[in-house]
Amino acid sequence: MTSSSPQPTESARPVNEGPTAFANVMAHIKGLAILVLLVVAAGTGGYFYGTQQRFAPVEKVAPGSLGAVEEAQAPNPVAHAPIETVSTSGSAAESSSPSSGFFGFHLFGEQKKSLPLTKKYWLHSVGASHVGYVLTASVNGTQVAKFTGPGQSQDITALVRAGENQIAFQARALPSEMNEHKGDVSSALQIQVIANDGIDKPYNDNDVLLKYGRSGADTGDYSNSLKFVTLE
Q1: Are 96 and 160 in contact (CB under 8 A)?
Q2: 51 by DSSP, 3-state: which?
Q3: Average pLDDT over the chain, rounded to whole?
Q4: CB–CB of 143/136 below 8 Å?
Q5: What is the Cα Rg of the chain in Å?
Q6: Number of CB atoms found within 10 A of residue 106's CB
Q7: Is the pTM of this model over 0.70?
Q8: What is the rounded distance in angstroms from the CA atom of residue 56 to the CA atom of residue 50?
Q9: Measuring CA to CA, which residue among 123, 80, 107, 18 is closest to residue 223?
């Protein structure tokens, strides 16, 4: 009896149960790409919503309501009496106080060095005499002259700045017996601000920057402030 030796069996090939290394890499890349897209989409949506949304309007509620904020009260504007003048040119503007910058402080840009003037600036009185007034003029805060009748002149070039300037007038009433034109509005003592080549040079209406005066019909004292702009 012959015995047969067992035949060797063919070894089984290993079964690949998991994804390959390449598949793993691709899966990670795909997941990362999806995450990036989600982040970009969320950021874009948030930006659009934040810039396009409209907030609810502020509503006024009864005082003492929960969460209510008191409304700030704006200061009442101060009423100024109108400035009375015989006439002013287009270069003159009424003013009650010097101009100031933001929050009452002068801005840096307003503090400019005065440029040299090419014209001469002076005051000249015309009109009627004995109207019962003495007119005192001050330029940029400095008193320059008193006028009691026509024909008086005063150079003010040294006090004038290039640009806007302020001139103040004090009109003091004299005793009634010194007014020879009572009730006559056409008889007035007038001061003119003139800009030309010199105080001794002839001038025309285009050289007159501003006019101020009081007539025989006026009564009482006056204090007025005006502005004029140089012709540089």
Answers
A1: no
A2: helix
A3: 76
A4: yes
A5: 44
A6: 12
A7: no
A8: 14
A9: 80
